[in-house]
Amino acid sequence: MGLALAAMVLATAGCGAVATDDGRAAAGAATICTHGTYRWSGVRHWQEVTALADPVTFPKGTQHYESTLKPVDDTVYRVAVSHVPKGVPAARVITALGDRLNVDDPLADPSEVVRPETSQFFSDTGDLEGPYYSWGWISLVEADFTYACGYTAPVRGHVRTWETVGSGFLPCSEPSGEDAGRTAALRLCPAGSPAAEPV
Questions:
Q1: Calpha distance 126→130 (Å, rounded)
Q2: Largest Cα span, the chain
Q3: d(CA 68, CA 24)
Q4: Helices and strands counted in the chain (H then E)
Q5: Distances (CA, A) of 68 to 26, 40, 120
Q6: Counting Cβ atoms within 10 Å, is residue 38 exposed (0-12), middle (13-18) or buried (19+)?
Q7: pTM
Q8: Are 132 and 58 spatial neighbours (Cβ–Cβ below 8 Å)?
Q9: Looking at the DSSP assignment, which residues form a beta bridge with residue 136?
Q10: pLDDT confidence of residue 31
Q11: d(CA 8, CA 15)
Q12: Dihedral over Cα of 82, 88, 89, 92: its sign
């Protein structure tokens, strides 16, 4: 009898649930399992323009530029994790997604918020000439997950967060390699500029 009881305790310790002799969770027991595995699907990456400077054209010999990046709208970006598994903080789910994507920097966690800024300045020093475009951007990522752990039923949820937030400044003769930069060029560069050509 003592050996059977010890085996039952060991079988349930990893998931934090109380189990009956036939393996079912006892009525009212907390089905918490904190060291499960994730299966990810529907991963999507995209960028959105968050701010733009006014169009500008520099005369030959310009050495310095400073401008204000103005928000394109009043969107506030927040991290969202739906159907968080019991006993697993939302931040840990996001960390698991970052591990899956092998990101260099941690993904934004639930404490982070990106709000429109009316005092975001941009400056550049160098040999400037001709039309330029300047923009702010956010690189978003979302994914579906299935979390499996012990005897608990799999949990299916969704994560939406972001990888990086930044700004860019380029001459209209130089296309951006980023989606947000191409969108900014279409709005700020003269028609026919290399940066404003459709991909």
A1: 13
A2: 91
A3: 62
A4: 3, 7
A5: 61, 39, 6
A6: buried
A7: 0.79
A8: yes
A9: 51, 167
A10: 63
A11: 12
A12: negative
Query: Are 17 and 29 in contact, with CB atoms under 8 Å apart?
Result: yes
Calpha distance 139→49 (Å, rounded):
9
pLDDT, tens digit, for every residue of 57-86? 989 888 888 888 999 999 999 999 999 999
Question: What's the token pair of residue 181?
Answer: 């930069």
Return the structure tokens found at 109.
Answer: 């966690």
- pLDDT band at 50; cut points 50, 70, 90: very high
Structure tokens at 30: 């907390």
Work out whether the CA dihedral 177, 49, 101, 142 comes out positive or negative.
Answer: negative
* Number of alpha carbons in the 13 Å side-chain half-sphere of residue 175: 12
